[in-house]
Amino acid sequence: MLIELFFVFIISMNSHSAELPNQKIDTKIEHHLEKVFKTTGWYPNLNVKVDEGLVILTGKIDSLEKKQWAFDIINKTEGVVAVIDQIDAHLTDGEIFKPAQTEVEKIYESVMRVWPYIVSSIILFSFFIFISFLAKKVTRNLLRRRQKNQLLITAVANMVGISFLILGLYFSFKTSGLSGLAVTLLGGTGIISIGLGFALKGTFENYTSGIMISTKELLRIGEIVNINGFEGVVQTVTTRGTTLMDYDGNNIVIPNSDVLNSVIKNLTRNPKMRTDFSVGIGYEDNIDLAFQVILNTLSGLSPSVLKDPEPIAAVDSLGAATVNLKVYFWFDAVQLSLVKIRSLVIKNVKEALMEAHISMPDDAREVVFASPLKIQQLSDQDITLAQTVIESKKSQPVPKVKIDLDNEVKEIQKQALTTPTAEAGKNIL
Q1: How far is 151 from 158, CA to CA, in rounded Å?
Q2: Are residues 83 and 152 in the same domain?
Q3: Cα–Cα distance measured from residue 222 to residue 229, given in angstroms and rounded to the nearest whole number
Q4: Average pLDDT, the chain
Q5: Could you give the number of structural domains in the chain?
Q6: Whole-angstrom Cα distance, residue 291 to residue 314?
Q7: Per-residue model confidence as pLDDT tens digits over 106-134
Q8: Does a structural domain hold residue 7?
C-alpha cells in the first residue's frame, strides 16, 4: 500500500514539474511588464496577459508613440514569442496629424539647409540672362556692319544668346549642388537629349531650314514668290515657317522644311515678265500687214511695253473662220500690273486692227430660231431716223479712260510689311 502511494506521488510531482516551468515564465513576464508599465504611469488602462509566451494586450492607449514604446519593451523582454494587439487606440487630433507634421518639419529643415545655395544659383542664372541679352545685342550690331541679311543676323545672334543661357544653367546647377544634373545638361543626355531628338525634331528641322533659307537668300521680305502653288508676298521667316500674304490679304504659313525642299518661283528677282494673248483675223486679210499694225501698236505703248526684249507676233493656228495670231510682249512686273497692262495692249491692238480695216470675224455658227422670223420692211422715214441716230453717235467724242497701270501687288506688299505678323517677324528665328 505504501509503495503504491509512493508511485502516485512521484507521478504527480512529475506532471506538475512538466507544466510548472512554462507557467512560471509566463507569470514572470506578465509581472515584469505590468511593473514596467505601472512605473511609467502612461498606461493606466492597459491590461497585459501572457500565455505560452504570447503577450496579449487589451485596454486603451492615448498615443501612437506610447503604443510603439510599449511594443518595443515587450519585444526586448526575454521569453516573448509574439504580441497580440487588442488595444482600443484613442488618438487626439494632434496625434492623427503627427506623421504629416513630422514630414513637413523634415522638409522645412532640408529647405533651410539648401536655401543659400538656391538663392545664389538664382542670382547667378539671372546674371547669365543679362549676359545672354547683351551678347545677342552686340552680335547683332557687329553683323550688321558686314551682313545685310536680317534673317541670318537674327539667327546667329539668337544662337550666341542660347549658348550663354546653357552655360548659365550649368553653373547654376553646380552652385546649387546639383552637379550630376549639370553634367547631364551639358553632355546632352537624359530627358533633354530625348526631347531634342524626338519631341523637338520638327522644331529643329524648321529652325535649321530657316537658317539655310536666309543664308542662301532664297527669299527676301517683300518679294513675290510661288511656293507649292501658294503665291504671295513674303512677310517673315520665323522658327516655324515662312509667312506669305496672298493677293486676297490672307496669311499663309509654310513650314521652312517644305520651303527648302520645294520649287520656289520668285516673281521679283527678275522684274521682266512676258505675257501673251491671241487674236484672230480673216482669211482674206494680209497677215504681214496685221503683224506690222500689232508691232507698231506695241511700240507706241513704250515704256509700259518693253522694247528689249522685243515683242513678237506669230501665226499660232488656222481656225474655222480666222487665222489665229499669237502676240508676246514683255513688261516690268514689279512696277506694272499683269492684268492691267494686258488689258491695255489688247484694247489698243483691237482698235488699231479695226482702223487698218483688218477684220476679226467670229467663228462660223449655225443659229436656229425657235419660231418663224417675220420680215418687215422699214419705211424711208424709219431708215432716215436710224441713220441720224448712228451718225450722231459717231460724231460724239469718246472720252478717254485714264488707265492706271501700277501693280496692285504694291498694296499687298505694303500691307505685308505693316501687319502685326510682320512687326513680330522683326525678331525672327
Answers
A1: 11
A2: no
A3: 18
A4: 76
A5: 4
A6: 8
A7: 777 776 776 777 788 888 888 889 988 89
A8: no
Cis status of the peptide bond prior to 21, with omega within 30 of 0: no
Residue 79 CB neighbour total at 10 angstroms: 13
CA atoms within 13 A on the CB side of 213: 33
Peptide bond before residue 303 is cis, with ω within 30 degrees of 0: yes
Domain termination residue (choose one: 64, 95, 126): 95
pLDDT, tens digit (0-9, with 9 covering 90-100), for 51-72? 777 888 887 777 777 778 888 8
- Rounded to whole angstroms, how far apart are CA atoms 328 and 277? 7
Residues 300, 287 share a domain: yes
- Sort strands 264-266 and 224-227 into parallel, antiparallel or unpaired: antiparallel
Within this chain, do residues 287 and 239 fall inside the same structural domain, yes or no?
no
The Cα–Cα gap between 263 and 238 comes to 20
Query: What CATH number did the domain enclosing 330 receive?
Result: 3.30.70.100
pLDDT band of 20, cuts 50, 70, 90: very low
Query: What's residue 14's pLDDT?
Result: 45
Please determine, for residue 266, whether its predicted confidence score (pLDDT) is greater than 80: yes
pLDDT surpasses 70 at 83: yes
219 contact partners, CB below 8 Å, separation of at least 6: 213, 225, 234, 237, 242, 259, 264, 266
Q: 222 or 88: which carries more pLDDT confidence?
A: 222
In-domain check, residue 388: no
Do 87 and 37 belong together in one domain? yes
280 shares its domain with 333: yes
Least confident of 22-31, 159-168, 288-297, 316-325: 22-31
Q: Is residue 337 part of a domain?
A: yes
Burial readout 234-256 (b: 16 or more C-beta within 10 A, e: otherwise): bbbbbbebbbbbeeeeeebebbb
Range of the domain at 58: 22-95
pLDDT of residue 11: 42
